[in-house]
Amino acid sequence: MKKLYIKKIRKISGDMLVNIFATIIPVLVLQFALLPIVAGRYDDANYGLALVLISLITISAQSFSVSLGNSRLLLNDTYVKLNKVGDFNVLLIAYCIINIILLSIGTYLYEGFLNPLNVGLIVSISIFQLVRRYLLVSFRLKIYFKGILYSNIILVIGYMVGMILFLLTDLWQLIYLTGELISLIYVMIKTKLLREPFEITQLFKRTTKHSLVILIAALLGTANTQIDKLILFPILGAKMVAVYHISTLFGKTLSMGVAPINNVLLTYLSKMNHFKIGYFKMLLFTASILGVLSYYFVILVSEPILTFLYPSYAQEALELIYITTSTAIITMVSTVINPVIMKFCNITWQIWLNIINIVTFVTMAFFLVQINGILGFCYAALIASIIKLIIMIAVYYKKAKTPAVTERAVI
Asked: N or C: which end of the chain has fewer CB within 10 A?
């Protein structure tokens, strides 16, 4: 029994490492190789705007794909037991249409004028990313995380090709567009989800409701990590967007690297009926220790690397890095324990947690910016992230002390 337990732990740990590696590769290439080149060729206004539009793409495409992918993962056993196939491609088309509308409006509002080429490029990137991210759930269903690794390696190759196109055209969008398209083609070849019938089954209403709940939570959750730039742009201008982004570079890269743990845990938790308090404590303790070590690592390496990569912004960014890195570490811990909350607590907590977080952040940001500018903005993000983590821990312990701890509310 002990050998079986150790073998399972090794399997889960191995999947986590593969998924972390798969996620961190494109992030490192973009943030530490390609985007610094873009920053060097653009002025403050254009680079800040590019970062804002990237955030818009991330909020929309990631939210829709997470909603559909996690719903597929959590409800897949029900479809298999009832021998039903359908619903998800119908929802995928609906989400793509909504995504097109949102990105078109968002691009127009932030650019301040209608540029059909830019709108078309932004919408195309978001659609490719949405579909690709959703299709990756096929690898998670098979617990084959190497498939995600291979697709992201191809994504990076696509980014490299896109960088060549950028150097020829000065269109940063081509970096993302080429990478997403090439990786999407690979994933479409390797998975069969898009070949499923466009049919509505008896589970469609339940699946749609479940997906919408996760979508709202995902929109709020993704907004929590991306809305900072969207708020900063109209308040403090494009340059402060760039400065703030660079100050969060290491911290958010770490958070993105840890985010795959969320996917792996949810994959395994979807097949479990209970999760002991002792396991939760161990998960929280491990995440906290890793967070502390990561914090000191970031502080140690940030100055020489940022000075080299972003010489125009580094000095101002380094003044914020102690606060922004603390925020990222707290967010990282929250990310690690969130699958447990999603699986074993009422799914609507995913909405409430993010509503509380985003309302706290936005309210405090507008207030503290008036007092202390960009520094006050950073403190607002830190306080909001701490409050969210405390509430998450309280929600789990309250649920764990009830007789129904092994039951999860079904939408």
From this structure: N
Give the SS3 label for residue 409.
Answer: coil
Type of residue at 43:
D
Query: Tokens at residue 342, please?
Result: 């999603």
- The Cβ-side half-sphere exposure at 273, using a 13 Å CA radius, reads 1
Could you tell me the two tokens for 154?
Answer: 């191809």
HEC string of 358-369?
A: HHHHHHHHHHHH
Q: How confident is the model at residue 17 (pLDDT cuts 50, 70, 90)?
A: confident
**Burial of 295 (C-beta count, 10 Å sphere; 0-12/13-18/19+):** buried
- Find out whether 257 and 17 touch, Cβ atoms under 8 Å: no
- Tokens read off for 254: 């770490």
Residue 117 burial by Cβ neighbours in a 10 Å radius (0-12, 13-18, 19+): exposed
Q: Are 148 and 139 in contact (CB under 8 A)?
A: yes
**Number of helices (H), then strands (E), in the chain:** 16, 0
At 407, which amino acid appears? Answer: E
**What does pTM read for this prediction?**
0.80
Give me the long-range contacts of 94-97 (CB less than 8 A, separation at least 24): 95/64, 95/67, 95/68, 95/130, 95/215, 96/64, 96/127, 96/130, 96/131
Q: At what angle do helices 173-190 and 116-135 cross, to 10 degrees?
A: 30
Confidence grade of residue 54 (pLDDT, cut at 50, 70, 90): very high
For the residues of 202-228, what is the DSSP string, one character each?
Answer: TTHHHHHHHHHHHHHHHHHHHHHHHHH
Cite the DSSP H helix spans in 314-348: 314-318, 321-344
Q: What is the pLDDT of residues 379-396, one digit of tens each?
A: 999 999 999 999 888 887
Cα separation, 326 vs 251, whole angstroms: 8
Taking alpha carbons only, the member of 274, 259, 271, 15 closest to residue 143 is: 15
Q: Where are the domains of the chain?
A: 12-400
Burial 198-220 (b: 16+ CB within 10 A, else e): eeebebbebbbebbebbbbbbbb
**Can you tell me the distance from the alpha carbon of 60 to that of 219, in angstroms, rounded to the nearest whole number?**
7
